[in-house]
Design a protein that fits this description.
The protein is α+β, with helices and mostly antiparallel strands. Helix content is 35%, strand content 19%. The strands form three sheets. It has a seven-stranded mixed beta sheet. A two-stranded antiparallel sheet has the order 1-2. A hairpin with a 2-residue loop joins strand 8 and strand 9. The chain is elongated.
């Protein structure tokens, strides 16, 4: 397949497929992904766009204290039992819906806005045990979590990531949806032949390209997505190398293009050089010779050298 005027290996075709081929991507989500990827109107986001949409940072959700040991101002993941619901009063529709929860050491209130009361009653009935992850805050002397980022049944603790990559978003695109789709895109990543020198990779501790991408989208530590992490440095080097190779190909193509030869009798050039208040250095003469050669006057280059 052609891409940008060059033949693209068929191995890469899955990466250039539309993001609409991912499960759960309909017309609305596809439009949001295209906007996130910076596509022009009418263009669609591709799998490669999702793979190269790298996280800005990562949240550490590994802290799983009891409520009494949770710290105000820090993210915690706690297992609690739902004890009561406090829906917004009928005459105050903008008031929050509150869910009272507790463990054997203390209590916490989950706070939700935007009229979600009825769905909360159905999803988290009194007596159910849930795992909640979010920022522990204090209001009126009580612990609370406003709009927890994650809530899962107590038996499904695996649904809450220990280290969660955080991505740049666009309006209307939920972070959980984007994380899921990027995870599906990573599954489409083919096994690519390594193009970097083995000794070079070993010297800098770089993994292979696919391994670096997987590390960034599924980090084991928050530091794995830092700007100076090995995974980011590997991808940054590849980007620099690719840009240099692309420029080399463009230059080679331009050199092959027919041009208009410019020849002269060299009197003007000699007159200018003779009027200079200094002698040209060897490097200056070499540069002048290269320019002259590009203008199709090789005999001048030979004389200067």
């Amino acid at each position: 397949m052609l891409d940008g005027g060059f033949m693209r290996p068929s191995l890469l075709d899955p990466l250039f497929a539309s993001a609409e081929t991912l499960p759960g991507v309909g017309e609305k989500i596809a439009a949001l992904l295209a906007r996130l990827a910076g596509r022009q109107p009418g263009e669609k986001a591709r799998i490669i766009d999702l793979l190269l949409h790298l996280p800005s940072f990562a949240l550490d959700r590994r802290a799983r204290p009891k409520l009494a040991q949770s710290r105000i101002g820090e993210i915690a993941t706690v297992e609690v039992a739902v004890t009561a619901h406090r829906p917004a009063p009928p005459n105050r529709p903008r008031a929050p819906h509150r869910i009272l929860c507790e463990d054997e050491t203390g209590d916490v209130t989950l706070v939700f806005f935007h009229g979600v009361g009825k769905s909360m009653l159905e999803r988290y009935p009194v007596g159910s045990r849930i795992i909640v992850s979010g920022l522990i805050e204090q209001y009126d002397g009580m612990r609370q979590i406003v709009h927890p980022e994650h809530i899962a049944p107590a038996a499904r603790a695996d649904l809450i990531p220990a280290i969660e990559p955080v991505y740049r978003l666009t309006e209307g695109l939920h972070p959980g949806v984007l994380r899921r789709l990027i995870g599906r895109a990573v599954e489409r990543l083919p096994l690519l032949p390594e193009w970097q020198n083995g000794a070079f990779r070993e010297r800098f501790g770089f993994s292979e390209f696919g391994g670096a991408l997987r590390k960034l989208h599924a980090p084991c530590e928050p530091a794995d997505v830092d700007p100076l992490s090995l995974a980011r440095r590997r991808l940054a080097y590849d980007e620099l190398l690719a840009s240099q190779l692309a420029l080399t190909l463009v230059r080679a193509h331009l050199r092959r293009a027919p041009g208009c030869a410019t020849r002269g009798d060299e009197r003007i050039v000699d007159a200018i050089i003779g009027r200079l208040p200094f002698r040209l250095t060897a490097s200056q003469l070499r540069a002048l010779a290269e320019i002259t050669a590009d203008m199709a006057a090789p005999q001048r280059m030979l004389r200067l050298l």
